[in-house]
Design a protein that fits this description.
It is a single chain. This protein is of the alpha+beta class and 578 residues long. It folds into three domains: 44-72 and 111-236 and 412-463, BirA Bifunctional Protein, domain 2 (2-Layer Sandwich), CATH 3.30.930.10; 264-392, YbaK protein (Alpha-Beta Complex); 481-577, Rossmann fold (3-Layer(aba) Sandwich). Helix content is 26%, strand content 28%. The protein contains 14 helices and 31 strands. The strands form eight sheets. Strands 3, 7, 8, 9, 10, 11, 12, 21 and 24 form a nine-stranded mixed beta sheet that branches. Helix 1 crosses helix 10, helix 2 (44-63) packs antiparallel against helix 5 and helix 2 (44-63) crosses helix 10. The chain is globular, with a radius of gyration of 30 Å.
Length: 578
């Protein structure tokens, strides 16, 4: 490809709206342009990268035995009601009414569509197992699209769906996809970590996210460098440093090492937060217990958490086995506690199920809300002042915690989610009656798995990880071009003839090459080449030609070597083969 015949609108200035490194560089390098918030046009250079990523995905999916198809983006809302998920996505779901007044969903995902397809066409155990996949555009009305194509409203996903006759078959299908994902990310130049994850609205009991560590990542994961344990914060297990509850006080929390003091109601006018109550009463957050009132399937539940910890809604929802979990409104709180919002406590709760996080196990003489306006209790104690019958891990892990596997230090790190695999089980097949006739003559629901990759995110994440102050440094496998030829003065006859000769020779060798034949200064050509990040640069100038050599620069190493003209093709082929 000749630069003068192509379209690469590079920019010198950093776009004001771009937050992440990848967003800035993808715009400056002429890969994408924003149309509206959360929707991007892929320019020719960006599209080349996109296609290379998709080809890698297809090769690995095909080699794993998955079969490609292509499902529509427009989905009848009846399928979403049938699965029971219409309300789960809430305002993220984009819908419209067609001319016949039917509600149509712009597909954010395709579990319902593929299950409906299999229900109608797979009816015997002899047709199982089978795995389908597609690469398709998805739509979600994100509250705040950001970081360019990392979080957008219109995005490209590879999603795959496996169908098996039993759980053992699902385990095998899941493993195949898991291994295929590892190969995909490795080939794209990404060091992905597979972490235990929450299944969320997708359903199922087992899932893993493939995460790439990045300061721009919106997700957080708990990672242990000692044993390799990794989990998303939604499910990372908190291993308490304290022993199990005992009848005698243990050295933990406010009043540690002392006898139980008499509970006392104190004035805290207008003060509702842990921080402000602590300042007023001169106690630390770890010497307090906060009482959070939730509505779990519209039933009130009080969750007790130590003051210095954050509640983990995913853990709470899983423990309660509820379909919907949200913070209770003021009316529910008043009915459950007898007091206003901001002063809730566990003593004399009126009408709420009480569960306690393990972090308060063993605490004595701690501070809680008094379920009265402008009032708190000091010297509150479990068993004497209120009872707890349910204990669970309900909080977010912190870097003060130990690894739940090896008891070593844990680190909380930012990461970008690249892919997510789920063991869906029977969630959709039961709801939508996707059944098959087994060899024993009985109808049984198919056992499903689901496997997604954010194709756009692979590109953006590669930029996040592979860049320097000059621009992008593409991994060879997904670079828009493998080689760029930079003639320093293309008007010079000998330079032009040599550049054209090398260009044609590399093209004949099936090398993906870009020739910068523009009438621009050497500085502009160098800056643009390093901005767009082509891995190998061949620099042709008068001085090098007189010596009978070319200058060869490896973008990643930032090192220039001299190569004889007759050796250039062989050298390039050897570099590409690495």
């Amino acid at each position: 490809m000749r630069w003068s015949k192509y379209f690469i609108p590079t920019l010198k200035e950093v776009p004001s709206e771009a937050e992440a490194v990848s967003h800035r560089l993808m715009i400056r390098a002429g890969l994408v342009r924003k149309l509206v918030s959360g929707a991007y046009t892929y320019l020719p250079l960006g599209l080349r990268i996109l296609k290379k990523v998709q080809n890698i995905i297809r090769e690995e999916m095909d080699s794993s035995g998955a079969i490609e198809l292509f499902m529509p983006s427009l989905q009848p809302v009846e399928l979403w009601h049938e699965s029971g998920r219409f309300k789960d996505l809430g305002e993220d779901l984009i819908t419209f009414k067609d001319r016949h007044n039917r509600v149509i969903v712009f597909g954010p995902t395709h579990e319902e569509v593929i299950t409906d397809l299999v229900k109608n066409h797979v009816n015997s155990y002899k047709q199982l197992p089978i795995t389908f996949y597609q690469i398709q555009t998805k739509f979600r009305d994100e509250v705040r699209p950001r970081f360019g194509v990392i979080r957008s409203r219109e995005f490209i996903m590879k999603d795959a769906y496996s169908f098996d006759r039993d759980w053992q078959g699902l385990d095998e299908s899941y493993k195949k996809m898991y291994e295929a994902y590892k190969r995909i990310f490795e080939r794209c130049g990404l060091k992905a970590i597979a972490v235990e994850a929450d299944s969320g609205i997708m359903g199922g009991d087992v899932s893993h996210e493939f995460m790439v560590l990045s300061d721009s990542g919106e997700d957080l994961l708990a990672h242990c460098a000692s044993c390799g344990y990794a989990a998303s914060l939604a499910i990372a297990e908190c291993k308490e440093r304290t022993p199990e509850r005992q009848s005698t006080p243990v050295p933990q929390g406010y009043g540690a090492g002392r006898t139980l003091e008499k509970i006392k109601e104190v004035d805290t006018p207008g003060v509702t937060t842990i921080e402000k109550v602590g300042q007023m009463l001169k106690v630390k957050p770890e010497e307090m217990v906060k009482t959070l009132i939730y509505a779990a399937d519209e039933k009130p539940v009080a969750v007790l958490i130590r003051g210095d910890h954050d509640a983990n809604d995913a853990k709470i929802k899983k423990y309660l086995k509820c379909a919907k979990l949200e913070m209770a409104n003021e009316d529910v709180i008043k009915k459950a506690t007898g007091g206003p919002m901001g002063f809730s406590g566990p003593v004399r709760l009126k009408d709420a199920r009480v569960i306690a996080d393990n972090s308060i196990n063993g605490m004595i003489n701690f501070v809680t809300g008094a379920n009265k306006k402008d009032k708190h209790y000091i010297n509150t104690n479990i068993d004497r002042d209120f009872k707890i019958s349910e204990w669970a891990d309900l909080r977010m892990i912190t870097e003060r915690d130990l690894c739940p596997k090896c008891n070593k230090d844990i680190k909380i790190e930012h990461a970008i989610e690249m892919g997510h695999v789920f063991k869906l089980g029977l969630k959709y097949s039961k709801a939508m009656k996707a059944e098959f006739l087994d060899e024993d003559g009985k109808l049984k629901p198919v056992v499903m798995g689901c496997y997604g990759i954010g194709v756009n995110r692979i590109i953006a994440t590669a930029v996040e990880l592979h860049n320097d102050e000059k621009g992008i440094i593409w991994p060879l496998a997904i670079a828009p071009f493998q080689v760029i030829i930079i003639p320093l003065n293309y008007k010079n006859g000998s330079i032009k003839a040599t550049a054209d000769y090398v260009y044609n020779e590399l093209k004949e060798a099936a090398i993906d090459v870009l020739l910068d034949d523009r009438d621009e200064s050497a500085g502009i050509k160098f800056n643009d080449a390093e901005l767009i990040g082509i891995p190998v640069e061949i620099i042709i100038g008068e001085k090098s030609l007189k010596k009978g050599v070319f200058e060869l620069k490896i973008r990643e190493a930032n090192k220039i070597i001299e190569i004889k003209k007759e050796e250039i093709k062989h050298k390039i082929l050897s570099l590409i083969a690495l």
